[in-house]
Amino acid sequence: MQVALDDYVRAAGLATDLVNTAAEVWHGEDKLPDLASLAAFAELHSLPEPTRPGDLRAVHRLRVTVRDLVDHPDQARLITGATALTASIGDITLDTSPGRARWAVSLRPGATVFDALSLLCGVGILGVVQSLGAERFRACGAPTCRGAFIDTTRPGRRRYCMPGLCGNRVNVANHRARQAAAHGFGRRDV
Q1: Residue among 118, 134, 128 nearest 152 (CA)
Q2: Of the ranges 59-63, 85-89, 104-108, the best mean pLDDT one
């Protein structure tokens, strides 16, 4: 597996997906409760298959570490934390394939799903800090959600950790409130 160091958008998206599997985001339901769910997550993101019994615990610890970085977006702290995530996991190379030179990191042989996730999360965080700034690390704007995300959109105005879920819930609630107000529901006539 090779990670292009300028492909921080994909890597930051993976970091967001990882932190949003936590039970606190899903009101008590962990989306990575067992090795099978971790295997499905790894397959979805083209990561090495988890094979060791400790892989799940290691990924859970990584999820907490990445969430802590996203929740406390001080630039120096982000750089230090993300650098620690990428330390001694792979070899940096200059990939000159399809006519364009790119710096990349190749995972060492025998790398685990934890190693791949750690490397990708670190690259995503470092890339966003360098290219977009620390203000792109945010909590979800939905009032009932405890998710977090890294905003890699061009305008930088993303508000929800999962726009299709959290954004839709907010829009539906707003629509229902407008409908209720338009029809006089909730109003008391005295």
Answers
A1: 128
A2: 59-63
Q: Which two tokens stand for residue 34?
A: 């067992």
| Tens-place pLDDT, residues 127-151 | 999 899 999 999 998 888 899 999 9
> 90-108 as b/e, with b when 16 or more CB fall inside 10 Å?
beeeeeeeeeeeeebbbbe
105: left (phi over 0), alpha (psi -120 to 50) or beta: beta
Tens digit of each residue's pLDDT (9 = 90 or more) over 16-55: 999 999 999 988 899 999 999 999 999 999 899 998 889 9
Residues 6+ apart with CB under 8 A from 45: 14, 17
Per-domain boundaries in the chain: 2-160
Enumerate long-range contacts of 151-157, CB under 8 Å, 24 or more apart: 152/8, 152/9, 152/12, 152/13, 152/128, 156/132
Question: 141: exposed, middle or buried (C-beta count within 10 Å: 0-12, 13-18, 19+)?
Answer: middle
CA torsion, ordered 104, 108, 112, 118, to nearest 10 deg = -40
Each residue of 10-38: b (16+ CB within 10 Å) or e? bbbbbbbbbbbbbeebeeeeebbeebeeb
Fold of 2-160: Jann2411-like fold (1.10.3300)
